[in-house]
Structure formats: C-alpha cells, structure tokens
Amino acid sequence: MMTQIQSAVLQAEHLSKSFQIEQTGISVIKNVSLEVKAGEFVAIMGKSGSGKSTLLSLLAGLDYPDKGRVLLNQDDLTLMDEEQLALKRQRDMGFVFQSFHLIPTLTVTENVSFPLQIAGLVDDDRVDELLNAVDLNHRRDSLPHQLSGGEKQRTALARALVSKPSIVFADEPTGNLDEKNAQQVMDLLINLQQSFGSALVVVTHDQAVADRADRVITIVDGHTV
Ligand SMILES: Nc1ncnc2c1ncn2[C@@H]1O[C@H](COP(=O)(O)OP(=O)(O)O)[C@@H](O)[C@H]1O
Ligand SMILES: [Mg+2]
After folding, report:
1. Which SMART domains match (predicted)?
2. What would the pLDDT profile of 134-176 be if each residue is shown by its tens digit?
C-alpha cells in the first residue's frame, strides 16, 4: 500500500491550449507539466485570466489540449472520446464549482446520490454517510433554492465525494461564500478528502486555502512558475 500512496494519480505532460478568437489564436496554456500524487492536496493560484480554469478543465478531461497529454490513473484522457471521458469522470473524479451547479429540481438527497444513480448504483448508506459528514441530514428533502450558499456548497461537496473518486477538482469553491461559510466549506472539503483518501486540486485566490495545501502551483500567463 505504501507504493500506492506515493504514486501519481494525475500526470499532465507538456499541455498547451489556444482559443481561436476571430482570426487570432490566443495561447492560454503554455507547456504546462505537473503531477498530483494519490491523496495529495494541490492548490493552483494565479491572477484572474492567467489560465487556471482552462488548466483545470484540461486536467479533468472537460476539454482537450492542443498538445500534450493527461494521464489519470495511467489512462490517457486525451485519447478518449466524449463518452469514455464521461464514464471516467463518473468513476474517478469529483467536481466542485464556484456556482454550485446543483440540479434545481432535485432535493439535497437526490443531488448527492445523482453520481451513483447515473452509474447505475444504489448506496443509501453511502449517501447518508455523506449527508451526515456535511451536516445536512436535517435538510435532506430541501430543494437547492431553499438552501443558503454554504448549504448549497456543502451539498456539492457531498455529491463530489459520494462515489469515492480518486481525485476531486474544485474551481474557486469558496468564491461565492462569505468568510465564515468559506472557512467551513474548506474545512469540510479537506476533512472529507483526507478521510476518503482522494487527491484534491483546488483553484483558489484565497491565500488561507493555499496555506493548507500540501503544494501550491502558481500560474502566470499560462505558465507554471
Ligand atoms: N472558451 C474560450 N474562448 C476564448 N477564450 C477563452 C475561453 N476560455 C478562456 N479563455 C481566455 O483564456 C484566458 C484564461 O481564462 P481562464 O482559464 O478562465 O482564467 P482564470 O480561471 O485564471 O481566471 C482568458 O484570457 C480568457 O478570456
Ligand atoms: Mg477561473
């Protein structure tokens, strides 16, 4: 098991990405290589517009790089089609976004169990475990619009971890929360990640979040520095 703890869950090699705007190609990610080890917590920092969200979407197989490759548990995401990527995301990844991305017509419980459901699984004990872990058992039948920002993001945390992903990606997960809720959500995210052993990659502006990471990667103008 020791070798597994040390092994890389995610390896990005020489990633480049441009966006075509009218006739001009704008280079947004420039030859970025990085590695995330199993169970490791990595923070990605950088100014607005430096390419953090673009990098995260390449790492998570939400978009394809122009050059380079991304290995998740040894599988090259850049060789997969959309369907294979969707399956890979279901099985191996969890996501937390700044704007929560909950399904508005589903209750808290249904949102949390959604990743299991689309994978054809039922695990009510696991859903209960997560609802308790984020202290939302008493809100389990509420709809997202009935929740505070902090409660919405705690629902999203439970959903991100319900299928025991090997890695969780979070893009400014506390960006829409006040300081108190931001602190609570980050505490929970780190506790959950540690107790379930998932790796965690968090894009953040918040130095307090970065201070708690095992490692900080800084992006300046599409490069790692
Ligand atoms: N789909 C897109 N089409 C064109 N330009 C984009 C697209 N996505 C991002 N960009 C540009 O890439 C740069 C980096 O964006 P982003 O990765 O969102 O930065 P960050 O998350 O660090 O604020 C910005 O200049 C942005 O305008
Ligand atoms: Mg961004």
Report:
1. AAA
2. 999 999 999 999 999 999 999 999 999 999 999 999 999 999 9
Q: Determine if ligand 1 sits within 6 Å of the CB of residue 221.
A: no
Domain containing 201 equals 40-64+80-224
- Among the bound ligands, the one closest to the CA of 28: 1
Instruction: Pull the structure tokens for residue 151.
Output: 């409660």
Q: Is the CB of 59 under 6 A from ligand 1?
A: no
Is there a domain that residue 19 lies in? no
What does the pLDDT read at residue 222?
A: 97
Task: For 7-111, list the strands marked E by DSSP.
Answer: 8-21, 24-37, 41-45, 67-72, 75-76, 93-97
Residue 197's contacts (CB-CB under 8 Å, 6 or more residues apart) are 38, 39
The verdict on residue 151 lying in a domain is yes
